[in-house]
TrEMBL record:
This is Uncharacterized protein. Keywords: Membrane, Transmembrane, Transmembrane helix. The lineage of its organism: Bacteria, Pseudomonadati, Bacteroidota, Flavobacteriia, Flavobacteriales. It comes from the Bacteria. The chain crosses the membrane at residues 23-45, 65-86, 93-112, 118-141.
């Protein structure tokens, strides 16, 4: 009996598989969707918390804007970026970075200002965000699998 090989079958049918999504890209996109879904759900539960809502009512407007960005806008940007990268659109990576990098920078800044020590503050700030940084690195490594077509909204 002849062994079945996918590459030979594709070659015999003359079908080109020019943009194949790698397994790593698929796994990271799915993990991004799951993580953003869990975060968004937990944020909605926390937003319904009366004590938390009272805490943010009495703060200045910049804290309220950061609260809105960090809890709602950034996870949505990460989800949309992962959707476009799953569809092999290169500009999805930049959307994902818009949703991932500002919270990392802000949390490092917050830890550094709280500890007043750049060395240990920077270490713990980056340690806290190592999963976010790892996802950005994996997406950056997988960018060669994404298409270089001009920006469009076609799916």
């Amino acid at each position: 009996m002849e062994s079945w090989r996918t590459e030979e079958a594709v070659d015999s049918l003359e079908i080109s598989l020019k943009n194949r999504r790698s397994i790593a890209l698929t796994v990271v996109c799915i993990l991004t969707w799951v993580g953003c879904g869990i975060r968004f759900t937990l944020d909605l539960i926390a937003f319904n918390n009366v004590y938390l809502t009272k805490t943010f009512v009495d703060t200045d407007k910049y804290n309220g804007i950061w609260f809105l960005l960090n809890w709602f806008i950034f996870p949505v940007l990460c989800t949309v970026g992962a959707i476009f990268m799953f569809r092999l659109k290169r500009w999805g990576f930049w959307i994902y970075c818009l949703g991932q990098i500002p919270p990392v920078v802000f949390s490092v800044y917050t830890v550094v200002t709280i500890t007043k020590n750049l060395g240990s503050g920077m270490f713990f700030g980056l340690l806290w965000n190592c999963l976010s940084i790892a996802f950005v690195v994996v997406y950056a490594v997988e960018m060669n699998k994404l298409s270089r077509k001009p920006v469009s909204t076609d799916f």
